[in-house]
Design a protein that fits this description.
Distance between the termini: 93 Å
Order of helices and strands: HHHHHHH
Bound molecules: heme C
Structural class: mainly alpha
Keywords: Heme, Iron, Metal-binding
CATH class of one domain: Mainly Alpha
Helix content: 25-40%
Pfam families: Cytochrome_CBB3 (PF13442)
Radius of gyration: 34 Å
CATH architecture of one domain: Orthogonal Bundle
Number of helices: 7
GO molecular function: electron transfer activity; heme binding; metal ion binding
Shape: rod-shaped
Protein name: Cytochrome c oxidase subunit III
Amino acid sequence: MKSLFTILLIAFCMTLISCSDKRERNYQYFPDMYESIPYDTYGAYDIFQDGQQAKKPGEGTISRGFTPYEYDDDSEGYALAKAELKNEVPYTEEHLAKGKELYTIYCATCHGDNGKGKGYLVEREKILGVPSYDDQGRAITEGSVYHVMWHGINTMGSYASQMDNKELWLVDHYVMKLKAELEGKAPRELELESEFKK
Ligand code: HEC
């Protein structure tokens, strides 16, 4: 009797094994581990308004570290920025040095080291119409300088994607320093960083 039982058991197991196809996926133990209960990222589900798991960012969302700029790229925006936009970054020696460094990288090729508009590319006639920073007709201000760096102006491109907000303001300080030098004005008094650290 015992041996008959053993034979039957073996036969039963063999039937089970012989029917399985090794190339096919077999039983899934704990299917929760393979088939996720939460919604898949970017999955399509009717339950969502637009049928998509991924939602668009809320209106007015900005990416981390990005500072929005409210002045439009037109003559009105230019005039407003020129009149009211102020450089809030402290005017310190360290900031000026950093501003000079960035200016030399991004601006000097056209505007020249001294801001007279006679940079390397101008001397080689690769670009025309680069003004001097003391150009009376333009009468640039810290607001207008920021505005043209942000939006660009005619043949000059925008620098908004190459420098962050603070870096743009550092270059701005340096441009205003060059302007004052070209106009023969007394240099602006330096601020001490410590005054601003609380
Ligand atoms: C490829 C050459 C080039 C580079 C590089 C360049 N500029 Fe200019 N920039 C110009 C030209 C050309 C103009 C004149 C545009 C016009 O009004 O037609 C100009 C104009 C300006 C003006 C006067 C705008 C006004 O209000 O009328 C400022 C200020 C200025 N640039 C600042 C900068 C600063 C700061 C940088 C570096 C971040 C820079 N530029 C980089 C070519 C350049």
